[in-house]
Backbone:
């Protein structure tokens, strides 16, 4: 008898990716608050039960979506092409990281904000820790003087979704203005 477990795992992974892609499109179109399990199922062309079996709840879906998005960004800055990935000047990589993070907030800001509002994930979550290490490492490579951990935390603060969404939605600041100001901040902090 043939073992179908490999094919089943491939199907499960494919379904998971399909559902996460559908959820990401819905978040981009309608915002995270308007995304329902029914809407994700309809967009993905599967039954609602499939979404619940895969993620358990809407909260589980949102956390999986954020993990998926964070993983893509991490892959880009750890292994992707310069300037975001290895091979570029550390300050240029830092600037590229901030711009990539802001682009992510522009698309998935409501999901990110929901995680920021979760006390256990806001500052201690794995994605935040990886970002902190990345920024601190780049500042060290650039020869930045001072308390690199505190400086890295300070550089990440202006990239938080809650602040960026307030700047964009309430203060009507273009995302490019925010990105340019963040680059200016990076260059000032890393100046020797």
Residues:
């Amino acid at each position: 008898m043939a073992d179908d477990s490999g094919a089943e795992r491939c199907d499960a992974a494919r379904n998971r990716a399909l559902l996460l892609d559908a959820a990401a499109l819905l978040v981009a179109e309608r915002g995270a608050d308007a995304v329902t399990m029914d809407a994700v199922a309809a967009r993905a062309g599967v039954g609602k039960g499939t979404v619940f079996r895969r993620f358990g709840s809407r909260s589980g879906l949102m956390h999986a979506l954020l993990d998926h998005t964070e993983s893509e960004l991490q892959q880009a800055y750890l292994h992707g092409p310069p300037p975001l990935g290895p091979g570029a000047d550390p300050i240029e990589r830092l600037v590229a990281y901030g711009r990539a993070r802001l682009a992510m907030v522009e698309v998935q800001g409501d999901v990110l904000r929901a995680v920021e509002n979760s006390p256990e994930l806001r500052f201690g979550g794995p994605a935040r820790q990886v970002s902190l290490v990345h920024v601190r490492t780049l500042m060290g490579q650039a020869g930045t003087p001072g308390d690199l951990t505190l400086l890295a935390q300070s550089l990440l603060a202006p990239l938080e979704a809650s602040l960026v969404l307030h700047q964009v939605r309430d203060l009507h600041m273009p995302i490019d203005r925010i990105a340019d100001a963040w680059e200016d901040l990076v260059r000032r902090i890393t100046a020797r």
About this structure: Residues 90-116 form the longest helix (27 residues). The chain has two domains: 1-56, 58-190. Residues 48 and 82 are 41 Å apart (CA to CA). The chain has a mean pLDDT of 86.
